[in-house]
Write a structure and sequence with these properties.
By secondary structure, this protein is mainly alpha-helical. It has helices at residues 3-19, 46-60, 63-72.
């Protein structure tokens, strides 16, 4: 494998793993960032956003999904 491709794969793997690590910049359980932060979402989009959030939580806590993800990157 060529050197650049190998380094690209290593960095991609690192970046994918970083997506699932909680940081100080993540929102709390109510969707707020710090004391004043939050997000405006039109009422019509709330159900879709909740569905997306639930799918994300399920995926990041599913060992089989994570193994497949890391295996491919």
């Amino acid at each position: 494998m060529n050197f650049y491709l190998q380094n690209l794969l290593i960095m991609t793997n690192y970046m994918v793993k970083q997506v699932f690590i909680k940081t100080q910049y993540d929102s709390d359980n109510k969707g707020f960032f710090g004391n004043y932060g939050g997000a405006y979402v039109p009422e019509m989009l709330i159900p879709a956003l909740e569905e997306l959030e639930n799918a994300y939580i399920a995926a990041k806590n599913d060992p089989e999904f994570l193994n497949d993800l890391y295996k491919n990157y």
